[in-house]
Amino acid sequence: MSDCTLSLRLYNDQQGYQALVTAFKHAKAWLTAGHSLIIDVRPETRSDAQNRLLHALIGDVAKQAEWLGKKRTPIEWKVLFVSGHSVATKQGAELVPGLENEFVNIRESTARMSKSRVNSLIEYVYAWGSAHDVDWREAKQWLVDSETGEIYESR
Fold first, then answer.
1. pLDDT of 50-78, one tens digit each?
2. Number of domains in the chain
3. CA distances from 80 to 12, 57, 123 (A)
4. Rounded CA gap, 134 and 18, in Å?
5. Both 37 and 56 in a single domain?
6. Claim to verify: residue 91 and residue 133 sit in the same structural domain
7. Lowest mean pLDDT: which of 4-8, 22-26, 54-58, 130-134?
8. Average confidence (pLDDT) over 6-33
9. Which of 38, 44, 91, 136 could serve as a FRET partner for 66 with CA atoms 20 to 30 Å apart?
10. What integer pLDDT is reported at residue 47 of this predicted model?
11. Phi-psi domain of 75 (left: phi exceeds 0; alpha: psi -120 through 50; beta: other)
12. At residue 16, what are phi and psi to the nearest 5 degrees?
């Protein structure tokens, strides 16, 4: 009972059932010992590969493109892309006065995006960059499986 943490990925009903049986076996000793446990069931968020691809794409844009006549950092480009993607996908944007009377765009967190939402954002960045003649240098190392949509690093 030294480690209570158990993370399982459920991808179909049969495998999911078996994973939950395994989870109960893991949890039973803790429950018998009087501990309360929590099980979170939620959609899978972005993968590490998606994260690395997204940041490679944003890095390529930051090295080659300008916005409003100046070079922007990858962090600034990420804000621009997440905000633009939110509007383009009809999620909207909220611009509010900040604590020092600056304007702040309250936007969604990429860390909390579902895999499909991050894929949509990646497609948005690709489309914008391609329309603005970005040469995908860092992003060339990434491949997307056409059947599953999974992203992996080419070697």
1. 888 999 999 999 999 999 999 999 999 99
2. 2
3. 36, 13, 15
4. 46
5. no
6. yes
7. 4-8
8. 89
9. 91
10. 79
11. alpha
12. -60, -40
CATH number at residue 111: 1.10.3790.10
Give which of 77, 32, 60 is closest to 136, Cα–Cα: 60
pLDDT value at residue 58: 96
Structure tokens, 149: 């949509």
Phi, psi of 97 (to 5 degrees): -65, 135
Q: Is the pLDDT of residue 139 over 90?
A: no
Same domain, 116 and 61: yes
Range of the domain at 133: 48-153
Q: How far, CA to CA in Å, does 108 sit from each of 17, 20, 40, 113, 132?
A: 32, 31, 21, 8, 25
Q: Which of 127, 150, 126, 146 is nearest to 54 (CA)?
A: 126
Across the range 123-152, mean pLDDT stands at 81
Strands, E assignment, the chain: 66-67, 70-71, 94-97, 103-106, 142-144, 151-153
Instruction: Report CA-CA distances (Å) from 1 to 21, 23, 33, 103.
Output: 17, 13, 10, 50
Per DSSP bridges, beta strands 70-71 and 66-67 are: antiparallel
Q: Report pLDDT for 9.
A: 78
